[in-house]
Amino acid sequence: MNRKQVLDYIREEYEVLPDYPFLKSPEHAVFRHKRSRKWFGLLLKVPGSKLGLSQDLPVDVLNVKCDPELTPVLRSQPGIYLAYHMNKNHWISILLDGTVATKEVKQLLQASYHLTKET
After folding, report:
1. CA within 13 Å, CB half, 89
2. Which of 33, 39, 40, 97 sits between 20 and 30 A of 20, alpha carbons compared?
3. How many domains is the chain built from?
């Protein structure tokens, strides 16, 4: 998936539009539950070096919450990294360059949505 596909998918699947709360980073999109306003996703553009990539060019990533027991396993997969600017035990960053299959991105997003939903 790429940035546009993520935006479209979240709008269609969860009926959620992003908000852009960061004045210094207007391209960073936050996805929140409608009632609780809890975050279930964060779409960012970050320098590749911040993820440990050899390039410093900006890349799109999607941060999602995940089960802390799965975090180490997920991070061992190509395209999944320690969460950029989030709790690294509970969140991961997914590189949106096609490395991670669309089906897996959707599954991880769904898990994040359910982990953060209203109780």
Report:
1. 2
2. 97
3. 1
Residue 87 has which token pair?
């709790």
Quote the tokens at residue 41.
Answer: 């996703």
User: Which pLDDT tens digit goes with each residue over 36-63?
Assistant: 999 999 999 999 998 888 888 999 999 9
Please list, residue by residue across 16-31, b when 16 or more beta carbons sit within 10 angstroms of its beta carbon and e when fewer do: bebeeeeeeeeebbbb
Q: What is the pTM of this model?
A: 0.93
Q: What is the DSSP letter of 98?
A: T
E-strand spans in the chain?
29-32, 39-47, 58-65, 80-82, 91-95
Strand partners, 31: 41
Domain that holds residue 82: 3-116
